[in-house]
Design goal:
CATH class of the largest domain: Alpha Beta
Strand content: 15-25%
Bound molecules: nickel (II) ion
Order of helices and strands: HHEEEHEHEEEEEHEEEHEEHEHEH
CATH superfamily of the largest domain: Zn peptidases
Distance between the termini: 15 Å
Length: 401
């Protein structure tokens, strides 16, 4: 594979100016989730110009897919692999002084999805050039609204993107400012958390702050609930399994001497294990209603399931790890820690085996140190070449197996 590897690197060097130009164009014109109209048009035009087949647009509003069919002979049934990128930006005002700075006021590619989209366009180009080297099909997929739960992945799956042709495996990657340029992180099993939300509505009986005996104080009930919710992780969940319950908002009352009628709590639950996820959802419900009832109030819980945990198939993770080791060297492929952040690539990985990995992009020498979702976020564009090479190599290996 030395010869092929060298050829691939030369090809990547050749297309990198174009990949960077694409990235900067997308960066300059960011669009929020489900509003990626121009981005998706740009992607579709690029795919068309490259010669990608069966381009479909407008999936889940702005999603795009296309097919690259290998032309190498095969003896037996061939496979289809899905490669996924997200296209959406964030409601953040960019503070970088770069010539590709966002022209959309208050909207910014502050997570690197501009890079993901540009990388997948580069990957498409290389795989098309090398279609005689593989049998089977590559489905490239550009999704809307990763940042906006319930997200763009789920409705794209519901629209049938995993069929016609039927997808056998899925791969995707995220640029990672928490890792330096030149490092690639691959982890088998659960890598990112499930993220759920809950809202607790507490109904008491308002009145004068000096006459509590004729009221049911929803603030005191809420305070008991906040404390009790912390005992779920502390006392009920298996301590070897990670979980978080956070109450991030507590609203009720306006005046210092008035007991309000109602109060509201809002929070998030993060888990890796589906059983723990279910356990916590049930216990929140039971604690909230039990405490409210015992304190003469009424309370209801709106529990909203968000992205499931992102779980990498061990074999697919090994495939990526081996490819990444060839790209950056074995000692620069790390097993990153699990993160309590969430990602809707998880929906694809629930349906088919695959792997979601990270590509280090921080470079202090160039001042590129700000984290994701920061108004000064920017990444080292050399990371794009590492991401492209890893994904192309992984894809060719997967289809060759
Ligand atoms: Ni992101």
């Amino acid at each position: 594979m030395v010869v092929a590897g060298t050829r691939l690197r030369n090809d990547i060097d050749e297309i990198m100016p174009g990949v960077i130009a694409d990235r900067r164009h997308i960066h300059e014109h960011p669009e929020l989730g489900f509003q990626e109209v121009e981005t998706s048009r740009f992607v579709a035009e690029r795919l068309q110009a490259l010669g990608v087949e069966d381009i479909r647009t407008g999936i889940a509003k702005t999603g795009v897919t296309g097919l690259i069919r290998g032309t190498a002979p095969s003896n037996g049934p061939t496979k289809t692999v899905l490669l996924r990128a997200d296209m959406d930006a964030l409601p953040i005002r960019e503070e970088n002084e770069v010539d590709y700075r966002s022209v959309a006021d208050g909207v910014m590619h502050a997570c690197g999805h501009d890079g993901h989209t540009a990388m997948l366009l580069g990957v498409s180009r290389l795989l098309l050039d090398q279609r005689d080297r593989f049998a089977g099909t590559v489905k490239v997929l550009f999704q809307p609204a990763e940042e906006l739960p319930p997200g763009g992945a789920k409705p794209m799956i519901e629209a049938g993107v995993l069929e016609d042709p039927k997808v056998d495996a899925a791969f995707g990657m995220h640029l990672a400012q928490e890792q330096p340029l030149g490092v690639i992180g691959v982890r088998a099993g659960a890598t990112m958390a499930a993220a759920d939300r809950f809202i607790v509505h507490i109904k008491g009986k308002g009145g004068h702050g000096a006459r509590p005996q004729s009221t049911v104080d929803p603030i005191v009930v809420g305070a008991q609930i906040v404390v009790a919710l912390q005992t779920i992780v502390g006392r009920e969940v298996d301590p070897t399994k990670a979980a978080v319950v956070t109450v991030g908002a507590f609203q009720g009352g306006e005046a210092f001497n008035v007991i309000p009628d109602t109060a509201e709590l809002r929070g998030t639950v993060r888990t890796f294990d589906p059983e723990v996820r279910q356990q916590i959802a049930e216990r929140i419900q039971a604690l909230v209603t039990g405490i409210a009832t015992s304190m003469r109030a009424e309370a209801t819980v709106e529990y909203r399931y968000g992205y499931p945990a992102t779980v990498n198939d061990p074999e697919m993770a090994e495939l990526v790890r081996a490819a990444a080791a060839e790209v950056v060297g074995p000692d620069r492929v790390i097993e990153p820690p699990q993160t309590m952040g969430a990602e809707d690539m998880s929906y694809f990985l629930e349906k088919v085996p695959g792997c979601y990995y990270i590509v280090g992009s921080r470079n202090p020498d160039k001042g590129l140190v700000w984290g994701h979702h920061h108004p000064r976020f920017d990444f080292d564009e050399e990371a794009l070449a590492n991401g492209i090479e890893t994904l192309v190599t992984t894809t060719l290996r997967y289809l060759a197996d």
